[in-house]
Amino acid sequence: MANLVTSLCCVVLAAVVVAYAQRRSQLVARNQYERMSSDVTMQCGSLDSDASVSWKVNGTDVKAQHRLEGPRLILSQVGLGHNGLYSCFQNPNGERRDTIYLHIGIPPREPAVTCRSNTYPKGFYCSWHQMHPTYIPTTFEVDVQHVQRSLEVQKDSVHKNRCHVRFPEVFSSFPYKVNVTAVNALGKASTTISFEESSIVKPDPPERVTATPIRDNPRRLEVTWHNPSTWPDIDNFPLKYFLRYRPLIREQWQHVELSDSVSHTITDAYAGKEYIIQVAAKDTEIGTWSDWSVAVHATPWIVNPVPSTPTTEVDLVPETRTSPIPSSKAPQKGEPPVGRAARLLTVFSPLLLGMLLLLM
Question: Where is the signal peptide, in residue numbers (predicted)?
Fold first, then answer.
């Protein structure tokens, strides 16, 4: 009798557990992913084809273009506006039978992949991104091959679309092959690139660039910088540098290439003009130039102007100017009136003397 009671209790308990699980499955939303611009069908649980149901999205009636076919809701030409939480209720008592979270997106396309070594000869990193958004969660699978051997790939802790790989050997002449596959609920797409070790070496820009005017030198600037901190072995893998500078008033840059120095004196600056200065770095034998460093601004030494001499009373005496001697052809100044009357008297005196003799 005790065994029979125990058996019945187990059966009842199992039935309760099954009913609870079914009820729980009806309340927990399941995800459904569909392609943009397609027609979408959502099934209300496991109801028969002749069941009568009503649907809601995000707690309100479905207003988008749709039609009902028994327990199925059919949406036409779906877009991002159709994303949401859909619930179906069985008529006539309105019991909720299913909940679906609809996600609209597109399958991934071939990702763009680039690889670079800024820590040569330790290793390199590869990064990737989708050229077009997928609107739904997309993951990436990475495989790196060298001499038909898979290399260990470490995901970056900060950049989700980046991984790091250590060089298995240095100065290898065999190419590396990197494959990145984008995967989401609607499909997958892959990109594969191949490269030689030397082609991806690119240091980070030089750091802590400074430019300082040189005392009493109005055309000079002293520029200094530090090696990029990410470059691990500057002694065995030295860098060379490329300096560019220009005054703000001009668009054309001037350039200087330096072998291994971390300083340079600009000797042809315009006096009193503000300059913008940047530096790039490169391995002395392989790879490409880094990006430019953060720009710094500096102005050459400005010489203090000579103080003006105080004005005295002597300086205020007007200057005496001597008129130039007129040329013989230049018109002369007018003569005094007395001199002109005497000359007339001299001319007419014989005439007057004759007239007096006739009267007598």
Answer: 1-21
Domains and CATH numbers, the chain: 27-105 (2.60.40.10), 111-199 (2.60.40.10), 207-298 (2.60.40.10)
Does 193 have pLDDT greater than 50? yes
Place of tokens 């120095």: 261
Does 337 have pLDDT greater than 80? no
| pLDDT exceeds cutoff 90 at 209 | yes
Q: Is 119 left (phi over 0), alpha (psi -120 to 50) or beta?
A: alpha
The strand order across the sheet containing 154-155 reads 112-116, 123-129, 162-166, 154-155
Confidence of residue 303 (pLDDT cuts 50, 70, 90): confident
Q: Which residues contact 19 (CB under 8 A, 6 or more apart)?
A: none
Q: State the amino acid at position 52 in one-letter form.
A: S
Residue pair 243/258 in contact (Cβ under 8 Å)? The answer is yes
Cis upstream peptide for 92 (omega within 30°):
yes
Residue 94, pLDDT score: 87
Residue with tokens 């009493």: 216
Q: How confident is the model at residue 6 (pLDDT cuts 50, 70, 90)?
A: low
**pLDDT tens per residue, range 10-33:** 554 555 444 444 454 446 899 999
Question: Alpha-carbon distance 74 to 78, whole Å?
Answer: 10
The whole-number pLDDT of residue 93 equals 86
Please state the pTM of the whole predicted model. 0.70
Structure tokens at 232: 């691990």
**Interval 116-126: pLDDT, tens:** 999 999 999 99
